[in-house]
């Protein structure tokens, strides 16, 4: 098969297409101008086959190649209102809403197996960006969108993990998980002892019943034999009766006490272990490099902390204890049965293989069905959150009915998946009930004959009848729990996968402490690429004096933000060195570096809490006077005290209760309180109006005094006060100089200014 048909087809790199496909594309004018392509593995009927999506800056083409290539669809990008990927049972689709004279029409244009879900989701976003901007979105790393396979079994790996659920080392994961119990070994020992004691005590009623039947109420008493009645009237039988009743009550009392203690011990043990795992996981996530998050979606990372740790919680607090109790119960029942009547015990075990095999097959199929339910439930929740989160947009475009239809479709899919699960359960449990019920006639028939032939006492027969339910039910439960244990161990392996990930940006073994900083910065022959084969910066040399303000200028994607990321040490340089006060940034103690570098971003992130707590986040030990002083310097104090709750005003999630300018000034106040020696301003005024920009500029003036400053600005005019402008072009420094010097050179910066002025004139005329 040709290279283009590789199962890991890359949607970012344009590989050679089969000759027949190239020929078909040529008939519709697509030659060397394609910018996006994707191969899927299902045809329009849902059978396995080759289909290709190819996009140019003007149109979208779908080609089917099953024996001979043919053009299925050719759609102008501007006729596409939206693109969405959808998950089905075992498959994924790409659906577009096409603009027509009657409105919008939903059309499925591509289909792939479940392994293509992430690629289809990614290509949907790429198509929309291509339609709106004429180019593909700039991406640091597209490896997370490629299909990855398990190196052992070849199955497709989950999109957010390198762990294959079919090949997970359950025993290894279990051992490692239980290693977290070492600090709580006495709690674990106590819990196990209580489990053993509780299971042993639970058999007292059955054993006492056998003794009652055989010793207190023998068959002769039941038939009214005179000798037997006389014996029963004596005090010995009554004493035995009283002793057995006391034993039953006392055993029940001890079982209840043990259950209370065991429950509390297990809760404390499980919660403590989970706290340790969760804390270690979150601490490690905080220390991982930014590149780790570049390759993963935030939701996938959050899933490790919430869902995977939650699965471990269910295992430690429920599944593990239930499995231990079920195992102990089965062992005790079999021991008692074989001790009393070995032959009948063998007959009792006849239905067991059918119960085990039937339950195992049922749950193996049910897990797949439940996965569909979970996926559809997740899809329904995501759609609901998306629609409610964008309720203003929905109302503005009158799309309520469209959103209702979309929700109803997803809800119906979830309904069908749930009905499938419940239908399977409705058929399985009656069948298993019948199979397990066969044990009773087996015991009554063979055991009854043994009693009649005096090979076994009637009390032993009653004991067998009483223990049947306690044998089959734990076996069935234990078989079901094999799947739960597998899911839990897979979750554990996913957690350990994160814990075993080494940060790419590491602390030096003997880091240099940097208590005082002058602010001198040197880029020396710096080269860097988010991916090794795609350099973003090449041989950058720049010397910045302490207290100097540097304006970084260049086209989108030129490498300006990358320079900032390196200075913040989100990444390490590939070649060359980056120094602060003559010390390589890689040798500086991480906490010292963070304390001396501050940043104000275009989209300032505010935490859910009060204005005061967001400003004080930079320095939690700051006094109220310091916080207010920082707010005054940021020109934020006046609008803050205008709120009814003043500095105690809650900002909402991500600061949604504040305007963009208010959020930005709070971020500036936070940076002022941080008091860094090196300051980074990344498009700090790009998303605010002119009047608000002036207030922010005044605040930034206070912030930049006496600090080495690197500023990226969308409006080039805002960099007039910079000491020097550094023009970055294609990953290299093209020009350095003051605003006036660069204008006189009529180079890259001059053309950028002219282009921006022309755009402003167009906007002014249009306005």
List the helices and strands and how they pair.
Elements: H1 19-26, E1 36-42, E2 48-55, E3 59-66, E4 68-76, E5 80-88, E6 91-100, E7 103-113, H2 117-133, H3 170-179, H4 185-201, H5 204-216, H6 219-223, H7 226-233, H8 235-287, H9 290-294, H10 298-340, H11 342-348, H12 351-389, H13 391-396, H14 400-437, H15 439-452, H16 458-499, E8 521-528, E9 537-544, E10 549-553, H17 560-567, E11 575-580, E12 583-584, H18 590-596, E13 597-600, H19 611-616, H20 624-633, H21 637-641, H22 660-674, E14 678-682, H23 690-704, E15 708-712, E16 724-729, E17 732-737, H24 739-745, H25 748-766
Parallel strand pairs: 10-15, 10-16, 13-14, 14-15
Antiparallel strand pairs: 1-2, 2-3, 3-4, 5-6, 6-7, 8-9, 8-11, 11-12, 16-17
Helix pairs in contact: 3-16, 4-8, 4-10, 5-8, 5-16, 8-10, 8-16, 10-11, 10-16, 12-14, 12-16, 15-16, 20-22, 22-23, 24-25
Describe this structure in words.
This protein has 767 residues and is of the alpha+beta class. The protein has 3 domains: 3-145, PH-domain like (Roll); 164-341 and 487-504, Up-down Bundle (ABC transporter transmembrane region fold); 521-766, P-loop containing nucleotide triphosphate hydrolases (Rossmann fold, 3-Layer(aba) Sandwich). 54% of the residues lie in helices and 15% in strands. It has a 6-stranded mixed beta sheet with strand order 13-14-15-10-16-17. Helix 3 (170-179) crosses helix 16 (458-499). The longest helix has 53 residues, at 235-287. The radius of gyration is 36 Å and the shape is globular. The two termini are 57 Å apart.
